[in-house]
Amino acid sequence: MSINFTKQSRLFQDFRSIPHTDYQYLISFYDKHHKDISYLPFEEGMTILFYYSNALYENGYYSKHITTAEKLLEVSIINNLDYIDGHDVYITLLYQKTAAHLRLGDTQKAIQLAQQLVGIDSNQLLHTELLQQCFLVNRPAWIRATLTTSAVATIMAAVIIVLFASLQWYQIPNAMMMPYSLLATAGIGLVACGWGYYRHVIAPIRVIIAQAKEKAKNK
C-alpha cells in the first residue's frame, strides 16, 4: 500500500498547508489536534503521524520519536503500508530510530537496528555509515585514551627537540633519548590504536556487510 497526496478532511488540509521542514509547527499542530487526528481516516492519520515522527527526530526529541516510530512501524506492518508520499515508511523509521538510540547512548540497540538496515540494503551508503558510527561510539575506551596519549607524546617530543636545538643541547650525550623515547611511545600507541580500530570497528562491519550480501545473493 502507498499513501499519496490527498485532500479530504479540513484538518488534513490544514496539515498539508504546513511546510514539512517546519518541524516545531508540525509538532505543535499534532499536540494540539492529536485527539481529532485519532478519528481521521487511516490514510490521513498515518500521514500526519509519519511527519510528526519525522519532526520529533529532526528536533532532537529522540525518546518521544522512538515511541512514536515503534507505533508507526507496528501499524504500517499490520496494514501492509509501504510508502507515504513516496517515502519508504519502514526504512525511514528504522533509520531514524537507529540514530535516535545511538544519540541517546543506547549503542547496543543501535547496533542491532543498524545491522537490520544493512541486511535490507548493504549497498546503501547511509546504512553502512550509520553502522560505522555505532561501532565507533561503542569502541573500547582505551583506543581514545591511547590516541590522546600518543598525540601528547608527539607534541612533547617536538617541543623538546625544538628547545634542545635552540640551546644546542642535542650535542650532549644521550640528550635526545627523551624526545626519541616519547616519539617511540607515540608510534607504539598509534599502532595499537590502528589495531584496535580494525579489530573493533572495521572487522565486525566487514563481517556484517559480507553476511548481508551473501544472504541477499541466496534469496
Structure at a glance:
By secondary structure, the chain is an all-alpha fold. The protein contains nine helices and three strands.
The ordered string of helix (H) and strand (E) elements is: EHHHHEEHHHHH
Query: Tally the helices: what do you get?
Result: 9
* Biggest sheet details: 3 strands, mixed
Summed over residues and divided by their number, the pLDDT gives a mean of 88
Point out poorly predicted stretches.
Answer: none
The number of E-state strands comes to: 3
Report on this structure.
This protein has a 3-stranded mixed sheet with strand order 1-2-3. The mean pLDDT is 88. The chain has 219 residues and is mainly alpha-helical. It is 76% helix and 3% strand. The two termini are 23 Å apart.
Salient structural properties:
elongated; 3 strands; 219 residues; 76% helix; mainly alpha; 3-stranded mixed beta sheet; 9 helices
Give the helices and strands, then pairings.
Elements: E1 2-3, H1 10-16, H2 23-37, H3 42-58, H4 62-78, E2 83-84, E3 87-88, H5 89-103, H6 107-120, H7 125-137, H8 141-167, H9 177-218
Helix pairs in contact: 2-3, 3-4, 3-5, 4-5, 5-6, 5-7, 6-7, 6-9, 7-9, 8-9
